[in-house]
Specification:
Layout: E1 9-11, E2 18-20, E3 27-37, H1 49-66, E4 70-80, H2 86-103, E5 106-114, E6 119-129, E7 144-148, H3 153-160, H4 163-170, H5 176-184, E8 190-193, H6 198-209, E9 212-215, H7 226-231, E10 238-242, E11 251-252, E12 255-264, E13 271-273, E14 276-277
Parallel strand pairs: 4-5, 9-13
Antiparallel strand pairs: 1-2, 2-3, 3-6, 4-6, 7-10, 7-12, 8-10, 9-12, 11-12, 13-14
Length: about 290
């Protein structure tokens, strides 16, 4: 969808956040929205209300991190079924508010309604210096491709429902400080968060940048499989590109930063793993089975 001429919205559909540029301001404003739906993103039998609240906000904060922004506030609309009593609702908001407090985010409003299943829509607003947001469309031929952390932990946790991997799935950690570091110090050329799996999210980044990518096996979360690491969703690590001459440290605040490949000239969105085509098999809500 094209942005109308003269609009202060300078980036919309196709990136992690929309970017709004106030007239005469020194900052651009970032806005993202995410749904959290019972039976799709969490299950009542295995995910507590506190965990559901945490995940609701974490998903939006990860989008702000991917743009190199600072998170400021959130708006939360929540539809609750008959079984969700006051205690469940209080615990859900408790999960939201604890993560909000730890990240400096204000819950600024929202709405409540009855629904057939728990349905949450969260909007997160943030800011970034004018013209400095990290986007998906900035990768250039010859840039190196990096990922933070190890991949596949959330998918492995969902399969096993135990140990560190299960905790990784239940309480993802948005990489807000890392996103700002990538923008301020490493001058990353492109970035996105890994919400739907490396194979699919890297393809999206390459499509936006009109390039292809050559990668090798990424770092794998302990106990996870390579399939988990390549295609598993909800890791919420950052996938980013930098100029080849950029000195990237091995770690940032105890999070590993690993080079996994290079941006190549070629068909937009094409990804090859160890020389072979990598199918985008990450999570897609609308993929036909």
């Amino acid at each position: 969808m094209a942005i109308p001429r003269g609009s202060r919205v300078i980036a919309g559909i196709g990136d992690d956040c929309a970017i709004f540029r106030p007239r005469g301001g020194k900052e651009d404003l970032l806005f993202t929205t995410d749904l959290l739906i019972e039976g799709v993103h969490f299950e009542r039998a295995t995910h507590s209300a506190t965990v559901a609240g945490h995940k609701a906000l974490a998903r939006g904060l990860s989008d702000i991190a991917a743009m190199g922004g600072r998170a400021l506030f959130c708006l939360l609309s929540l539809g609750l079924p008959e079984w969700a009593d006051d205690r469940w609702a209080d615990e859900f908001y408790g999960g939201v508010l604890r993560l909000a407090k730890s990240t400096g985010v204000v819950l600024a409003g929202g709405d409540l309604a009855r629904a057939r299943r728990v349905t949450c829509d969260i909007v997160v607003g943030g800011s970034v210096p004018r013209g400095r947001a990290l986007r998906r469309d900035g990768a250039r031929v010859g840039d190196f491709i990096y990922v933070s952390g190890s991949l596949g932990g959330s998918a492995h946790g969902l399969d096993t429902q135990r140990g560190r991997a299960w905790e990784r799935h239940l309480r993802p950690r948005p990489r807000l400080a890392l996103g700002r570091y990538l923008r301020e110090k490493l001058h990353a050329t492109a970035c996105t968060d890994l919400s739907d799996g490396l194979s699919l999210d890297l393809r999206r980044l390459c499509q936006a940048s009109k390039v292809s990518a050559e990668i090798e096996a990424p770092p794998v979360f302990p106990g996870a499989t390579m399939e988990h690491a390549l295609h598993g969703g909800e890791d919420y690590e950052l996938l980013f590109t930098v100029r080849a001459a950029t000195r990237v440290p091995a770690r940032f605040e105890n999070v590993t930063l690993t080079r996994i490949g290079v941006i190549r000239r070629g068909a937009a969105g094409r990804v090859r793993l160890d020389g072979q085509p990598l199918a985008p098999l990450g999570y897609d809500h609308f993929r036909r089975s």
